[in-house]
From TrEMBL, chains A, B, C, D:
Pathway: Amino-acid biosynthesis; L-arginine biosynthesis; L-arginine from L-ornithine and carbamoyl phosphate: step 2/3. GO terms for cellular component: cytoplasm. It catalyses: L-citrulline + L-aspartate + ATP = 2-(N(omega)-L-arginino)succinate + AMP + diphosphate + H(+). Residues 178-395 form the Arginosuccinate synthase C-terminal domain. Residues 6-167 form the Arginosuccinate synthase-like N-terminal domain. This is Argininosuccinate synthase. Its EC number is 6.3.4.5. ATP binds at A10, Y11, S12, G13, G14, L15, D16, T17, S18, A37, G118. Its main location: cytoplasm. It comes from Pelagibaculum spongiae. The gene is argG.
Amino acid sequence: MSEVKKVVLAYSGGLDTSVIAKWLQDQYQCEVVTFTADIGQGEEVEPARAKAHALGIKEVFIEDLREEFARDFVFPMFRANAVYEGEYLLGTSIARPLIAKRLVEIAEATGADAISHGATGKGNDQVRFELGAYGLKPDVKVIAPWREWDLLSREKLMAYVDEHNIPVEQKKGNKSPYSMDANLLHISYEGNSLEDPWTEAEAEMWRWSVSPEQAPDQATELVLTYKNGDITEIDGKPMSPATVMEYLNKVGGENGIGRADLVENRYVGMKSRGCYETPAGTIMLKAHRAMESITLDREAAHLKDELMPRYAKLIYNGYWWSPEREMLQAMIDISQKHVEGKVRLKLYKGNVIISGRASDKSLFDEKIATFDDDGGAYDQKDAEGFIKLNALRLRLGAKQK
Amino acid sequence: MSEVKKVVLAYSGGLDTSVIAKWLQDQYQCEVVTFTADIGQGEEVEPARAKAHALGIKEVFIEDLREEFARDFVFPMFRANAVYEGEYLLGTSIARPLIAKRLVEIAEATGADAISHGATGKGNDQVRFELGAYGLKPDVKVIAPWREWDLLSREKLMAYVDEHNIPVEQKKGNKSPYSMDANLLHISYEGNSLEDPWTEAEAEMWRWSVSPEQAPDQATELVLTYKNGDITEIDGKPMSPATVMEYLNKVGGENGIGRADLVENRYVGMKSRGCYETPAGTIMLKAHRAMESITLDREAAHLKDELMPRYAKLIYNGYWWSPEREMLQAMIDISQKHVEGKVRLKLYKGNVIISGRASDKSLFDEKIATFDDDGGAYDQKDAEGFIKLNALRLRLGAKQK
Amino acid sequence: MSEVKKVVLAYSGGLDTSVIAKWLQDQYQCEVVTFTADIGQGEEVEPARAKAHALGIKEVFIEDLREEFARDFVFPMFRANAVYEGEYLLGTSIARPLIAKRLVEIAEATGADAISHGATGKGNDQVRFELGAYGLKPDVKVIAPWREWDLLSREKLMAYVDEHNIPVEQKKGNKSPYSMDANLLHISYEGNSLEDPWTEAEAEMWRWSVSPEQAPDQATELVLTYKNGDITEIDGKPMSPATVMEYLNKVGGENGIGRADLVENRYVGMKSRGCYETPAGTIMLKAHRAMESITLDREAAHLKDELMPRYAKLIYNGYWWSPEREMLQAMIDISQKHVEGKVRLKLYKGNVIISGRASDKSLFDEKIATFDDDGGAYDQKDAEGFIKLNALRLRLGAKQK
Amino acid sequence: MSEVKKVVLAYSGGLDTSVIAKWLQDQYQCEVVTFTADIGQGEEVEPARAKAHALGIKEVFIEDLREEFARDFVFPMFRANAVYEGEYLLGTSIARPLIAKRLVEIAEATGADAISHGATGKGNDQVRFELGAYGLKPDVKVIAPWREWDLLSREKLMAYVDEHNIPVEQKKGNKSPYSMDANLLHISYEGNSLEDPWTEAEAEMWRWSVSPEQAPDQATELVLTYKNGDITEIDGKPMSPATVMEYLNKVGGENGIGRADLVENRYVGMKSRGCYETPAGTIMLKAHRAMESITLDREAAHLKDELMPRYAKLIYNGYWWSPEREMLQAMIDISQKHVEGKVRLKLYKGNVIISGRASDKSLFDEKIATFDDDGGAYDQKDAEGFIKLNALRLRLGAKQK
């Protein structure tokens, strides 16, 4: 165990990270700095201050990162139409690099030589935190208590709590049986009955959205305004990135939008079942594609589509702070310069239905596309040469056989 | 105009191809052979026989290709989870190579030296028919009347009909205002009011599905059985490929599944608005991904995902009968050898909701994935080395800056 | 034939484009503007002025574009390590977009409504000129005489020359039997005896380089200095991009570097045999890879490698002025910010041999790479976890079988 | 340390693996089975038998795997034109999966529960051995002594040798200062003075080839015959795969062919300098591309080119025995069915110069490619439509700006 003087801990204020805060002080005989961020998880972060102080922490950082999270992480990712394995909108993955960045920045600011987090040794989050930290501060020491200690059962953990007099909230008993994570983009559920992929998720598990069955019988209509590939207004009202997401989460959740139940492949090697609620993200993905459909060049769109799975995988695997993600981002961002205009859509019982798109930068040319007389905008005879030359190699190939 | 002795025409029995049948005889002074196929478009094909005879055609081919279409074209494509531009399930695209193949085979069988079709010079279908034909019979002559003749308005066409006494059905008047295409996989709509991408599709346009609003208030549950990546049973009942599709179209359509409204990029260069109903395909895509999610290796799945857009584009652009499509198909097919088991899902008002997946060949290992004690199935300490080595280059890169 | 008032012609001063200049005036009854550029082809361009005047041309543009060509086209392409079909360094392809750009700019400046060029209907160059022109000036009219006129044999062409009194140089007789193209990056040969791919190219054909056999028995050593992925100095002497290329062409050619003899796939569908001399380019490709080998991150390099064939194909096919090329360029350029330092190499009888690379921004860490004791810079035990987690999916897969 | 009963060791007969054989017996108190293979490294393998017996080994496996190595590993890899990072021909990488396969098969045959190898914790080979073993026998125990023991300096190793009376050859003193590896495909050098990438490799280091300077002044000409993408004859003489490689190594080495000096990116994270001699491989790569150039369809070739870096990376990283490599191989192999014919080439002082290619399955059509009158084989007017439709999106895009 190498020597550590001061460690910055990603601290939620909950039981696990409270135990870690104490354990770090005991085990490493080091000072602990806590860092708690509001990234839209829907819980108060201010109470973490008193809890930290009660654990003997002197330096406590509590920050509202919602706008930075939406603007610099979620929005750039949605420019890419990123989806992991065809289904997962990367809600947890995209929050980790921001936390890693702030952990490292606070370490720099407070003179800490280490960071620590509460992610287990089986999951992707440890990878995301640590690759981010190493990529931003190459000599940082990372402490991952779940890979080090022997408090691997809840009983041992609670014994440690009692033994060290760690203040915990009384509501221990009613805790959700699922392992959960939440931020502006989503809330996720893992573990418990979900560990059998044949078992349906319980109706009571879901927290952010009603089921499609329980959603209103009337559709909700929205008009989203885009600029440079990002939403800037809803129904004509300018909104900041975080506000856009909060608003879409609300109306999306009310209309049963954005539930997903899937088995995904973790970077650490196993398959895992997860359930997700991503109301805003589900709307944003569909609407962004619609906006691109009339403003983005065909081959630009196809290039993006072909590289999207790789981009999504990079984020899923924790490589946000890598040169290859920056390269792809540069490519994606430059494609969005004319992705602007309006998309009209309806939310109805789990469905996001596009009903219109318009743009001053539209590449849709009615005159050319029409089935009616186009007045010569397009010469149908050109198609023969187009087909003939494209067919030439196929004809030579057919003769080869 | 080169000399043609006999031409095989893709003949629907409708007005346009009837005019073409007559025009070919007049213009090229050649014999015409008609070919009409049932590929699940939902209309009787047998009446085409009498119509063809009335036009003076001697050789008339009428065939039921539904099983071949589903088995050899649709099913292989769904093994790839193919979607064009994130939305379009390739319903029209996948039918054309089969028609092209039969046109060429009939040309060989009847000693014809040319083929002909009724696709216009603005669309993708001309490309798909012709690339297919050239790729299978390199010296074939292709006649595309819409690119040659001057009957470019409905008035001129009707004048030709009258002048040549072409028998047409009386229902001329009530014709749908949309340009439509249908087969086992979908029905499509283009033109008319859809030519403005801001205008919502009319409720009366849709033919195969009810709207989500009008779908039943009760979900329909299904269990699909897969073998080698293909559906072989529904609710425990073995079914042929075409039967699978007919059944899923029926229950899907009843539950408002599979409508899409989008702007796509045509191979010939313009953007075009299309609306589609693809009930079976929508269910099949979601279910196949679920089946793969527990039976397919992570990197095999990611390789498929990265190549899928290219595969979909090949089919969209008309390159089914090309060496590159065969190469990708070989790659995809070999990946499906263990994609087997069951997927349970619910259809509800436009939603396809996966509620379970199970397989004897499952790669999902509950023992490893569990949040509880795993008895040593996975050593959390391994994660440290995994992260450290993956981070090494990032750390060196950070020092470079 | 649509009406044309003024056309800008890419004019070499040679026979073919002189005929075109006259033919355009006759056929279209329009004014002709000539544009002749020095892009390093090794021939005087100034004489084109008098020839143009003799043909009755009033507006004559003659420009030295060597620096622009090297700096804005060749150098950016070499940042990508671009090679078409594993062998071809894109010498002709990369010059066309610059010519297209100037044609269009001169058309704007002179109020011309059309452009014209001397490329045939079988080759790639027509595509490159025209896609460039359409992409920069969408309403431009393009006149491609070789696709229009009937002067398809040399006899007819010479008859036209005589008939119209077109001034041609006396050296007509000694003309090379090959179709050639040259610029700073290469000289190419096609046609004649090369049309049989089994026939070896004649020794007398080659113009820029000696054969390896005739090259000096002593190697020439060079040190190239890089900054942002571009060569800025040779042997410590700062040089402009065009000077770099001229210098490397000279020493490369003297050492038998850069000959290639290959069969390539044209965009218009056929295979074609070409021979190329690309001395500077051959050295630059090898040296740039060596510079990247110590300064570029692994995954950044691999991403570049995977996209390189697509980037090269875009340039080969004429899509320099396309959004997808711009996207890829943005991705490539951002990767080059630390590609700087020195590469030492030897040129010897056709071989480019790297003998050293060094950089202040090197990612090569001797302390870590060493076979000797590394003092803990790398913990070999980390490798076990790395392998174990990477193997996990393979082990689960092996059990599946 | 888990219990091990019997371990199969990849045994070279050299010092290091002899120490390992003894150490395994001591440390694990287990039986050791040795496995020594001739894969063309150019050293006798039979002497390993006596050495193993002297170490107390009872089960000794000595095998000639040259044909299997060439036929089932090297040849399939060359069908892909595989090159890692633009330069490295994967000589070491491709041998490891065969060794891993035999280790596992011998473990099955002898009832061993573990395998062991002499690769260090810093290199790629440990990964290749172990991923292969885990992928073929998921429950195998792998012992990697270099990651476990404390014999990390040569002194400690020699002390162990003396202490345990391990028989070593007398030539200890003259050992090459480089870390080397050899098989039919290549010989490699790492370490020592190569650890500074600015330092040129010493002339005496190279073992298989003369330098270009010392190669004959006369070129050597060869004709290679291909079938299904593999070489089957040289100069008209049928040869087995291993014989092909031995022959080409000989003539290649004599002509100074196949030296490479490069810095590569290891999978375990660091950059490393390596020098390689790959005479046969260098010839095979160039010749195979030439054979494909006239027999492989353009888009098939481009698809291969785009996926090649990924395929090469899989092999470099040790994933030969993975589903994704099998998928890519299926794709590559199907592309080779018509890659047959002859390639003529010259070897001269480090250069491999293609001088001809011919095939009964050639796609090169002189009639179409010719600059002379083609008698209508290709209609130049088709090019206009081809360009016009390809330009349509670019023109719409230009108007957007």
